[in-house]
Amino acid sequence: MQKVNYDRFLDEKLSMLQSSGEKPSLLLHSCCAPCTSSALERLFDSFRITLYFCNPNIAPEEEYIYRLNELKRFVAEVGADADIVSENYDPAPFYELSAGLEDAPERGERCRRCIGYRLRRSAEKAKELGCQWFTTTLTTSPHKDSQFINQCGDSLAVEYGVPYLFSEFRKHDGYKRSIELSRKYQLYRQNYCGCVFSRRGQSAPAQCSAPAEV
Ligand code: SF4
């Protein structure tokens, strides 16, 4: 099946907003500070942004707290006027959804469920907070299936009545820019995607962002 160019949709939306002068509210699900850095930079002039840190996949708890604190530090250091809403650490939903899929490969069924769950929580939170749009920074990573992420976001938009902002943040040099910003702000770049299973195989290309040594 032919791939959809979701970056083009985002580009058109941003141009439309820039010419209309509108600045709607957007809930931006954040997986980590490096992936958020360039996505936030691209969206910041066009949306009023609330960052949402909801990642029950991350283990252990110290890692979860560290990634969240890095996000807070980045936002404070760039002086971005964006609220950060975060969930307390609770990995139970992740272990429930991944049961029996411990050995599934990256981009397989476990990852689809993991991403689907985080997107669902984001759609729910966007609705609860009255945000006009929602999306995720997960498409910054070259290791993630952006076709799946956008299709999933689109179906949740219908279910929750909150439009999903299509994206492919790694394009437009977004991934390269996330590495530059990570260097500039000395952001922690994890060498595994997040869950215990990706940590086990951390020599495989499972990381959410760039390898720490890049
Ligand atoms: S590898 Fe990443 S996306 Fe896949 S299940 Fe683990 S944390 Fe989720």
Structure description:
The chain is an alpha/beta fold. It has a single domain (6-16, 24-200), classed as HUPs (Rossmann fold). It has eight helices and four strands, in the order αβαβαβααβααα. The protein has helices at 6-20, 33-43, 61-78, 92-98, 109-129, 146-160, 174-184, 196-200, and strands at 25-29, 48-53, 83-86, 133-136. It has a four-stranded parallel beta sheet, with helices on one face. Helix 2 (33-43) links the parallel strand 1 and strand 2 (48-53). Helix 2 packs across helix 7 (174-184). The longest helix has 21 residues, at 109-129. Residues 203-207 and 209-214 have low confidence and may be disordered. The structure holds iron/sulfur cluster. Iron/sulfur cluster (SF4) binds at residues 57, 106, 110-111, 114-115, 193-195, 197-198, 206.
User: Cofactors and ligands present?
Assistant: iron/sulfur cluster
Low-confidence stretches: 203-207, 209-214
Largest sheet: 4 strands, parallel
Based on secondary structure, the structural category is alpha/beta
Number of strands: 4
Could you tell me the mean pLDDT?
94
Q: How do the helices and strands follow one another from N- to C-terminus?
A: HEHEHEHHEHHH
Main sheet strand line-up: 3-2-1-4
Fraction of residues in H or I helices? 40-55%
The number of domains is: 1
Backbone shape: globular
What top-tier CATH class fits best? Alpha Beta
CATH homologous superfamily annotation: HUPs
* CATH 2nd-level architecture: 3-Layer(aba) Sandwich
* Number of helical regions: 8
- Strand residues, percent: 5-15%
- The Rg value, from CA coordinates, equals 16 Å
Amino- and carboxy-terminal Cα gap: 33 Å
CATH topology tier name: Rossmann fold
